[in-house]
Amino acid sequence: xxxxxxxxxxxxxxxxxxxxxxxxxxxxxxxxxxxxxxxxxxxxxxxxxxxxxxxxxxxxxxxxxxxxxxxxxxxxxxxxxxxxxxxxxxxxxxxxxxxxxxxxxxxxxxxxxxxxxxxxxxxxxxxxxxxxxxxxxxxxxxxxxxxxxxxxxxxxxxxxxxxxxxxxxxxxxxxxxxxxxxxxxxxxxxxxxxxxxxxxxxxxxxxxxxxxxxxxxxxxx
Amino acid sequence: xxxxxxxxxxxxxxxxxxxxxxxxxxxxxxxxxxxxxxxxxxxxxxxxxxxxxxxxxxxxxxxxxxxxxxxxxxxxxxxxxxxxxxxxxxxxxxxxxxxxxxxxxxxxxxxxxxxxxxxxxxxxxxxxxxxxxxxxxxxxxxxxxxxxxxxxxxxxxxxxxxxxxxxxxxxxxxxxxxxxxxxxxxxxxxxxxxxxxxxxxxxxxxxxxxxxxxxxxxxxx
Lengths: 221, 221
Prior knowledge:
Low-confidence stretches of chain A: none
Strand order of the largest sheet of chain A: 3-2-4-1-5-6-7
CATH architecture of chain A: 3-Layer(aba) Sandwich
CATH class of chain A: Alpha Beta
Oligomer: homodimer
Largest sheet of chain A: 7 strands, parallel
Strand content of chain A: 15-25%
Number of domains of chain A: 1
Order of helices and strands of chain A: HEHEHEHEEHHEHEH
């Protein structure tokens, strides 16, 4: 269906224009926005919850939740921070229009960090800029060490990569060197943190990295 | 963007028409076709490889591989059965046109079972009929027990559900009853097999189920 190609291009171009507007608004209010992406069950919500718990007395955090069925929203709201639900209408990814439309539901100038939880999907979200400053990709050990080779776009567009569920490494044939080699080819020098939400392993290094980005947010992205 | 809705409807309608043609061709040649769907790393390839190993001396099997980067194709071809690569061009799901276009690459009247490996994605593939007889959905324990609640369309459209990586249950907080309840609400009475590709747990029951469907293939779907 070659006649569909221009339509896709137009949609992406319109998307990028809206993303640019969102970015300008975030920068004006001094908010660092991060786009958190992973497979279903990769650990987006667990990472976000644990990150908020560790940082919310130092950093003013808000959350936009774009998951298809927002079970996770309540868990986040229980932490007492502002949350906004994006109704994706069953869509497989967030787009710039959804995020831009949700901006007024949060008081941006009262935030340092806006965490956007994308839909659980290792493919489609990679194609849609949201206007965020950083793409956070979470892979997890049980998904296998071949994921960078099979889903290259997601890893290519990442600004930081968390490898979650490291506590399951001893029960899996997961070759961290093979995984990292695949990432390095796509995205040389990518910041990489092996973590476990269950044991807390590696979390301090990730938090330090993120805290630094929040501090320097006027110059990120 | 309300003006995009008719476009999507037209695409799906065209898709369904092609799927109907594919189904007719499969039925004419007496082939049972299954559409295997899962998250990235859920275990599609492992389940397919193990299923082929167990059945290929009783059942004439062919494979279409729709994964984005076809690393898995070689593993399947090593088993000496006919395989066909579908180039999805980075797309996030197979559609009927891709499958229909790949049919001539396999000698259908020499097959009993056609296994189609869809793209690793728990959302988009659910919306596109391929002309197959059965939707095989694979979930896996490390993804968490909330997946039916968060990705309902995939579970609603399943004809059989495999819950893979049961060997990891003891290291996870996975409540099988909660998972099954979510599935039952969406798809009452759905055939359900807890399995482990690693230990072989539960595989015989799944193989019996599939072997029965192949035997009765003229009346399935």
